[in-house]
Write a structure and sequence with these properties.
This is Phage tail protein. This protein is α+β, with helices and mostly antiparallel strands. It is built from seven helices and eleven strands.
Length: about 240
Amino acid sequence: MMKKEILNHAKQCGEAECCGFVIDNKIYMPCNNISATPTKTFEISPDDWIKAEEKGEITAVVHSHPDGEPILSEADQIYQQFTGLDWWLLCDNQIHKFRYIKPLLGREFQHGKIDCLTIVRDAYMLAGIELPDYERQDDWWHNGQNLYLDLLPQNGFVQVDAQELQEGDIIIICLGSSTPNHAAIYIGNQQILHHCPNRLSKRDMYGGFWMDYTHSIWRHKKWQKFGFMAILNNMAISSI
């Protein structure tokens, strides 16, 4: 029912971006787009925010990209940080749900909660590919487990040759272990995005140590190039 209401609202708005709220995860409240450029951006009035909060808990912000890609723009991701909410995006009659995450750059490390797997999951979520989370104990690579090599094929990844490396590929690295235990995302220009223990998540040059200790490179079967722009959009908000 809620999906139908959102689709109908977008249809009524024509070439303009529709916008609204999900309340209590079950009610859709359509809002007027008061942006000066409604075919390119959206803005919800303070009055509508107040009305929504009076109805219940706002659990998601909804808007559409009538002629755009199914990813959050840089501006979308900036405002999502302000709201601290999930954002739902309607594009090509499909609702794409983007959970709220902290920016990919500058994260504090906490194994099992905010680590190299987390940054891969969050980046791929922005690209439209939701990967499962797994409980993982510290030092699993010293306890006979091989999580990355076990889980990547199960979740739609295929191994590719290093000569075919492209943006969005996952690079698996042996970090202080003979078992591959660290993941990085290739972001072009010989750079990777990753999160090492006891460091903030960051960009690094892909060469030297990281290249020498690379185990393998993996690509998701459903990867699409526009997904990489969503990752770049997120990294851009940390530079503002």
